[in-house]
Amino acid sequence: MIRLIFYWIAILFLQLVVFNHLGFTSHLAPQVFIILLITLPLHISKSYQMLLGFLVGLVADLFIGTPGIHASACMWLIMLRFFLLGAQDLKEQIANHLPYNIHSVGLSTFAATATSLVLFYHLYVFWLESIGAINWIFILLTTLLSSLFTLIVIGVVQLLSEKSSGEF
Questions:
Q1: Helix, strand, coil percentages, rounded to 5, for the chain
Q2: What total number of domains does the chain contain?
Q3: Cα 90 vs. chain centroid, distance in angstroms?
Q4: Number of Cβ atoms within 10 Å of the Cβ of 102
Q5: Among 48, 49, 59, 81, which residue's CB has the most CB atoms within a 10 Å radius?
Q6: Rounded to whole angstroms, how far apart are CA atoms 121 and 165?
Q7: Is 166 contained in some domain?
Q8: Rg (CA), the chain
Q9: 77-81 CB contacts, 8 Å cutoff, 24+ apart
Q10: What is the CATH number of the domain that holds 35?
C-alpha cells in the first residue's frame, strides 16, 4: 500500500513539476498523470473509479489553472475506460485483484486501450481549452504530439514496473 501511495504521489509530482513546464513547444502538453486512471485495479467499484477520476482531475485543475477541464476529462476517460474494458475478457484479472497494466493484460491489449484513452483525453482537453477560438489543425497537432509523448512515458513506466507487483 505504501508503494502504491508513493507511486501516485511520484506520478502527480512529475506531472505538476516536470511535464507541465517542459516548454519545448506550444504543441507539446503531455498529460502523463492519466496513467493513474488507465491502470486502476479492475476490481474496484465503478462509483469509486469515477470519484478517483474526479479527484485526480480536480488536483490537476487546481495546479494547472484549468477550472474543471481536467476533472471533466478524467470523468469522461473513466467512462470510456468502462466501455473499452467491458469489451475485453478480464475475468482472471478481476478475480485476482490485478491492476490494468501491460503485465496483467498483455502488450497489444494494453497498448490499444491506452492509445485510445490517451488520444481521447488529449483531444477532449485541447478542444475544451480552445472553445471560442477553435483551430482544428492546432488541436489535432497538439493532440497527436502530446499523446505520442504521453504514450512513450506510459510505456516506459509500464516496462520499468515490476511484473510481480500488483500495485503498478
A1: 70, 0, 25
A2: 1
A3: 19
A4: 21
A5: 81
A6: 27
A7: no
A8: 15
A9: 77/34, 77/37, 77/38, 77/53, 77/117, 77/120, 77/121, 77/124, 78/37, 78/49, 78/50, 78/52, 78/53, 79/50, 80/116, 80/117, 80/120, 81/37, 81/38, 81/40, 81/49, 81/113, 81/117
A10: 1.10.1760
Here the cell at position 18 is 516536470
pLDDT computed for residue 30 by the predictor: 83
Is 25 inside a domain boundary?
yes
Return the closest-CA partner of residue 66 out of 18, 9, 131, 10.
131
List, for the chain, all residue ranges whose pLDDT scores fall below the cut of 70: 1, 23-27, 162-168
Q: What is the pLDDT of residues 52-76, one digit of tens each?
A: 999 999 999 998 888 899 999 999 9
Cell 511484473: give the residue: 163
pTM given for the model: 0.87
> Does residue 30 form part of some domain?
yes
Q: Which three cell numbers stand for residue 88?
A: 475485453
Domain residue limits at 138: 2-160
